[in-house]
């Protein structure tokens, strides 16, 4: 009955939020060709207040994607709702290397000879969209600094905490093949990423379109879609308030997780935190699809990207997709039966 009521209700706020989603996705698609699913997942993560880990090959468009997303955001907030009027850049790229220091990311105190005092110089992490390129090539100390920023939306330098903007989004990358000299991300930091997306080469037609439009897409004078920072934060709040998640959806998430943990092909299952993190992502996907309720299709689309980096398979098992499909089958069938029963009883 609750699902039926949720379907029947519509709100102008949710329509505006859906419009913000479409404009953001459209702005990135104008610059990044052949990556529609990656763009959609990235926009979902941004609105769901999560972060994205990309496994990709050099030259696959990760920098273009992150830059296009950052440049689509207009910083329209006033100093009163900023923290200490920190200057926020639209986009910053950090190339991670073994010799990088935490202060190279977060910033550091600088001595001012005129006033004989120290002032904090903000690092590149103070941006709306941060591309953490090859994050597994830097030391665990720098990775820990990133972990605090991603998890707590703040950085701490010399025992002083500096808040980051509410619209702080990290796109981290790692090369799945060239692993020599890298520092594998620890499980706690992997768990901070909402999605892990494995990218492959785009198809032939898309690659031709990239070559045909490269001059047009790099033209700085071209009209481009822009979305205000406050619009995005308002859309995030509206989706949270107006997209309904039925108890059956939550039960299905828990049952799938329990099935994974009990499966003999799985050494370590996903955390409870991953179930909490996926809820706003499901809401955003429903809004992007023009619905004010989450359904089973949303679960099936997002779960592989949420769980693939959180579930450790037993030695000799490599097909995570098959393991997940097997563990999803029974809970999804139960959800379908309960939904049909609810609809049938409401018709009476």
TrEMBL record:
Q: Which SUPFAM superfamilies match?
A: P-loop containing nucleoside triphosphate hydrolases (SSF52540)
Organism the protein comes from: marine sediment metagenome
What's the protein here called? AAA+ ATPase domain-containing protein
InterPro entries, sorted? ATPase_AAA-3 (IPR011703), CbbQ/NirQ/NorQ/GpvN (IPR050764), ChlI/MoxR_AAA_lid (IPR041628), P-loop_NTPase (IPR027417)
Can you give the residue ranges of the ChlI/MoxR AAA lid domain?
A: 259-312
A GO molecular-function annotation: ATP binding
**PANTHER family recorded for this chain?**
METHANOL DEHYDROGENASE REGULATOR, MOXR FAMILY PROTEIN
What does the record list as coiled-coil region(s)? none
Show where the ATPase AAA-3 domain sits: 51-195
